[in-house]
Amino acid sequence: HVQLVESGGGSAEAGESLRLSCTASGFTFDESDMGWYRQAPGKQCELVSMIRSDGATTHADSVKGRFTISKDSTKNIAFLQMNNLKLEDTALYYCATVVGGSSWYNPTVGYWGQGTQVTVS
Predict the structure, then answer these.
(1) Which of 67, 80, 73, 38 is nearest to 54 (CA)?
(2) 33 in helix, strand or coil?
(3) Closest Cα partner for 67 from 51, 54, 52, 53?
């Protein structure tokens, strides 16, 4: 069965960096599109970054230039490097599989991880 396990969240001060990891199993990782979502208290869940099976990446305007999504297909891990963190990056971050070919503007999520909390102060 599909499993997505996030790690690397925690507390950081504004301007610092964190790296999130998503260890995947139960599906063909290198043929899958992957996304990082986040949900802050009282706000809608938003797609932060996406990496396609071919390695192409897209980032939300709010994190462009600060966050980088990547993957290691030999280890079935997706990463989200978050630099220059801001207070507004505080949220629960989720890793997800995205149905291949889904538009950035209307992605279809296949599976969700359990989430990892990022708190910026």
Answers:
(1) 73
(2) strand
(3) 51
Q: Give the lowest-confidence range in 69-73, 104-108, 110-114.
A: 104-108
Token pair belonging to 24: 């995947």
Burial 19-29 (b: 16+ CB within 10 A, else e): ebbbbbeeeeb
Which tokens belong to 72?
A: 């290691």
Partner residues linked to 3 by β-bridges: 25
Task: Determine if residue 21 is left, alpha or beta; phi over 0 gives left, psi from -120 to 50 gives alpha, anything else beta.
Answer: beta
The CA angle 69-8-107, to the nearest 5 degrees, is: 40
3-state secondary structure 90-121: CEEEEEEEECCCCECCECCEEEECCCEEEEEC
Identity (one letter) of the amino acid at 120? V
Phi, psi of 112 (to 5 degrees): -115, 150
At 39-95, the pLDDT tens digits run: 999 999 999 999 999 999 999 999 999 999 999 999 999 999 999 999 999 999 999
